[in-house]
Design a protein that fits this description.
With 113 residues, this protein is mainly alpha-helical. It has one domain. Helix content is 61%, strand content 0%. The chain is built from 6 helices and no strands. The radius of gyration is 14 Å and the shape is globular. 20% of the residues are buried.
């Protein structure tokens, strides 16, 4: 399962990001993409995201931003409003969340082999 086929979201234009949500963290909040949390045929992805959520639960900022994304909120300013985390920090937390997810995926793929 390779979620990172395109450039990181921050380096893509809005149109590219809308056409190909390569970032699974951002795809959670994309109302046009099938939600891995809500579709029965996406059960492995739901389980994967649930495991990832447990992995980050000790970091309050990561958990809050992840929950906002799951609620369909992806704009930095909206995430800041919902979580109470300052917008510049939200951007940093989103980057950290992507990095943690990449490491998590690498470990998950290693475990399944």
């Amino acid at each position: 399962m390779n979620f990172r086929k395109a450039l990181p979201l921050d380096d893509r234009t809005r149109e590219e990001a809308e056409d190909c949500p390569a970032d699974p963290i951002e795809a959670i909040a994309d109302p046009k993409s099938p939600s891995p949390v809500g579709m029965e045929r996406e059960r492995p992805e739901r389980e994967l995201f649930a495991s990832f959520e447990k992995e980050i639960e000790s970091d309050e900022e990561l958990s809050l931003v992840f929950m906002a994304l799951q609620d369909g909120i992806s704009k930095t300013s909206e995430v800041a409003r919902q979580t109470g985390i300052p917008a510049p920090r939200v951007s940093e937390v989103k980057r950290k969340l992507r990095q943690r997810f990449d490491r998590f995926m690498a470990q998950h793929q290693f475990d399944s082999e």
